[in-house]
Design brief:
The chain is of the alpha/beta class. It has a domain of about 170 residues: Rossmann fold. The protein has twelve helices and twelve strands. Helix 3 links the parallel strand 4 and strand 5. The model has no long low-confidence stretch (mean pLDDT about 95). It binds NADP nicotinamide-adenine-dinucleotide phosphate. NADP nicotinamide-adenine-dinucleotide phosphate binds next to helix 1 and strand 7. This is NAD(P)H-binding protein. Pfam families: NAD_binding_10 (PF13460). InterPro entries: NAD(P)-bd_dom, NAD(P)-bd_dom_sf, NmrA-type_oxidoreductase.
């Protein structure tokens, strides 16, 4: 078997490779790909340079692959063309299974962020390959990275009472490795450890830190003003506001225990992640 993991130079791909190794896959059967390959040099597996823009490099990098973990790219606007190159190279390599990191509710989500994922899921479905869609919730890390700001300024956002399906990135990567090494019983997994709101997040931050933290619900316009006032370029602020409005619209709602079942243990909770 040869397991190929794209995005091995990023945190998710790294965690997935570490999980493959923990699951007993020999290092010699794992290959990672990325652009800045020096970032993955310490993983102890072969790493090949392959930009999603470079169809030839992808074909070479995937040669001989049995199973592919296709980690979605990080450049909205370029991703659909890039992902088409990845799918074509996977077809060329004749991989028997492709696990793709998608987004919760990709088929129906109205979030801008979901468009590339929906298009990629369709490409994979139409490709003749055997795809497994790992519809990942948001990483807790998206929020825990903001803890210092929460403690100083409180929590603010335009997500209203929208449910945020989320999980620790490491648990989502572990689930990806479980699918890659196992016999997946489904083609679509909706993956989250728990669902919280910004108000709930604020309560937990208060509880865990012991410091009273406030929550300021904002309209999209108000949130945009806060973000641009803090120095964010307009287009980035629009992107961030769009995510919150998408959450307010219920696009990250989810239920079920796909994640716990795949990883075979209770996933890390938001409280634990904040405490860490
Ligand atoms: N669920 C969530 O909350 C959430 C949050 C953020 C992102 N995501 C998605 O999940 C993916 C993995 O998460 P992450 O935390 O590891 O993201 P990340 O830190 O942005 O890393 C992205 C990875 O994708 C690779 N990549 C990006 N563009 C590429 C290209 N054109 N060609 C080849 N490789 C490319 C990067 O390679 P190099 O570093 O070598 O350039 C890196 O390995 C992201 O790419 C994004 O699609 C999900």
């Amino acid at each position: 078997m040869t397991y190929v993991v794209t995005g091995a130079t990023g945190p998710f791909g790294r965690l997935a490779i570490e999980s493959l190794l923990r699951r007993g896959v020999p290092a010699g059967e794992i290959r990672g790909t990325g652009r800045q390959i020096e970032k993955a040099a310490d993983l102890g597996v072969e790493i090949r340079r392959a930009d999603y823009e470079d169809a030839g490099a992808l074909r070479e990098a995937f040669a001989g692959a049995s199973r592919l973990l296709f980690v979605s790219g990080s450049e909205p606007g370029r991703r659909q063309a890039q992902h088409a190159n990845v799918v074509a190279a996977a077809v060329d390599a004749g991989v028997e299974l492709v696990a793709y990191t998608s987004i919760l509710n990709a088929a129906t989500s109205t979030m801008d962020l979901a468009e590339d994922h929906r298009a990629t899921e369709k490409l994979l479905t139409d490709s003749g390959l055997r795809p497994v869609f790992l519809r990942n919730g948001f990483y807790y890390e998206v929020y825990t990275a903001q803890l210092p700001a929460y403690l100083e300024h409180g929590v603010a956002g335009a997500a209203g009472d929208g449910p945020i399906g989320a999980a620790a990135r490491a648990d989502l990567a572990d689930a990806a490795a479980a699918v890659l090494t196992g016999e997946p019983d489904k083609g679509v997994y909706e993956l989250a450890a728990e669902v919280f709101t910004l108000a709930g997040l604020t309560e937990l931050v208060t509880e865990v830190s012991g410091k009273p933290v406030g929550y300021t619900p904002l309209t999209g316009e108000q949130y945009r003003e806060v973000l641009t006032g803090a120095g964010l370029p307009g287009h980035v602020a629009d992107f961030v506001v769009g995510i919150d409005l998408g959450i307010a619209g219920g696009n990250l709602a989810t239920s079920g225990d796909d994640l716990a079942k795949l990883i075979g243990r209770p996933p890390v909770t938001l409280r634990e992640a904040l405490a860490q």
